[in-house]
Amino acid sequence: MTIRTATDGSETCEALGDIRMDERSNEGKKSGSKPGLKMRVLTAAVGIPVIILILLAPVWVIAAAAVLCSLIGTFEFYGAVGLLRRQTPLCVVGFIGTALLPFCAFLEPMMIMICSFLYLLVLFLMMLMSGKKIRITDISMLIMGLIYIPFLLSNVLFIRQLEFGNILVWLVFVGSFMTDSGAYFSGRIFGRHKLCPDISPKKTVEGAVGGTIVCGLGFLLFALIINLFFADMINADMSYGAAFVLGLISAVMAQIGDLTASLIKRQFGIKDFGNLFPGHGGMLDRCDSIVMVAPAVFLFASQVSMFF
After folding, report:
1. Closest CA to 66 of 144, 150, 148
2. Mean pLDDT of 264-272
3. Residue 6 to residue 74: CA distance in whole angstroms
4. CA-CA 20 to 30 A from 193: which of 26, 140, 157, 233?
């Protein structure tokens, strides 16, 4: 195998990532250790009830869960990109920001601006006092982790504070689950054309289309359930048209999130971000679509009337 010399750090990282991914893929084929569908279903059977209980709980429980998931996901991200190994003290500041960021959902915009400025000031001072040990690329990677995980995930709390937010927040998880499941089974049954072979070789165009359709139909079913069993309780009906459109948007966002996570893992030569969930990988592997669906649901529901 001939490897051309990379012209910059990013190309070197990507080249090494491809080599590691190939090596791990070959090891997996030899050992037959690839998690089966049975393990994935078993893990989901435990995880789904936990998610349901959290969503039924008071908002402070949801906030605590968002902080915990964000901390685990950020830890996995910093480990994947090598920041945890190179800049441990800087990562501690990143974890502090991760724990605090979801609570911005409860702050006024001016207070968020002040906190953001002070946090950035601390990062710049650490870089200046490090004697060139902390690079701007390290700061950029840390901030990327904060935006990618706790900021996007905190949109679950933003949704919860909307009118009918206790209902709308379910759509984040319905969208992620329906898209993943629809794409998986559609791809297995109808998959013929590769979607992004260089990023995720097993994903197909047919799977992507199937996941989008299933998600749209899933949102329609969700609206039907709300209107049949909860309309009198909330004194409103959910719009089928708005639900279907949001379902299609959520499906696209979920797949962008999934492919982005796959690209990051391939660039840094890892198969999964972690092994917290048997058969599913780490926290970030499970939240890769949720972090994109959550802001999509919040932005859409805050601008379009979902109930009448």
Report:
1. 150
2. 92
3. 29
4. 26
Q: Which of 136, 143, 213 is nearest to 181 (CA)?
A: 213
Question: What does the DSSP assignment read for 43-93?
Answer: HHHHHHHHHHHHHHS-HHHHHHHHHHHHHHHHHHHHHHTTHHHH-HHHHHH
Per the structure block, which two tokens stand in for 74?
């950020």
CA dist 41 and 55 (Å) reads: 21
In a domain, 268, yes or no: yes
Which of 36-40, 145-149, 273-277: highest mean pLDDT? Answer: 145-149
Given a cut of 70, is residue 60 above it in pLDDT?
A: yes
Long-range Cβ contact pairs of 217-220 (< 8 A, separation 24 or more)? 217/178, 217/247, 218/174, 218/175, 218/178, 218/182, 218/247, 219/171, 219/174, 219/175, 219/178, 219/243, 219/244, 219/246, 219/247, 219/250, 220/244, 220/247
Phi-psi region for residue 235, left (φ > 0), alpha (ψ -120 to 50) or beta?
Answer: left
pLDDT confidence tier of residue 41, bands split at 50, 70 and 90: confident
Q: Convert the pLDDT of each residue in 196-209 to its tens digit.
A: 999 999 999 999 99
Contacts of residue 138, Cβ cutoff 8 Å, sequence gap at least 6 = 83, 86, 87, 90, 127
Distance, in Å, from the CA atom of 107 to the CA atom of 63, rounded to the nearest integer, reads 13
Instruction: Check whether residue 214 and residue 90 sit in a common domain.
Output: no
In a domain, 76, yes or no: yes
DSSP 8-state code for residue 148: I
For residues 86 and 220, state if they share a domain: no
- In a domain, residue 18? The reply is no
Provide the domain count of the chain.
Answer: 2
Residue 36: per-residue pLDDT: 58
Both 190 and 288 in one domain: the answer is yes
> Which domain, by its residues, includes 75?
58-161
Beta-strand ranges (E) seen in the chain are 194-196, 200-204
Residue 268 has which token pair?
Answer: 């840094």
Q: Tell whether 116 and 187 lie within a shared domain.
A: no
Between helix 88-100 and helix 59-80 the angle, nearest 10°, is 160
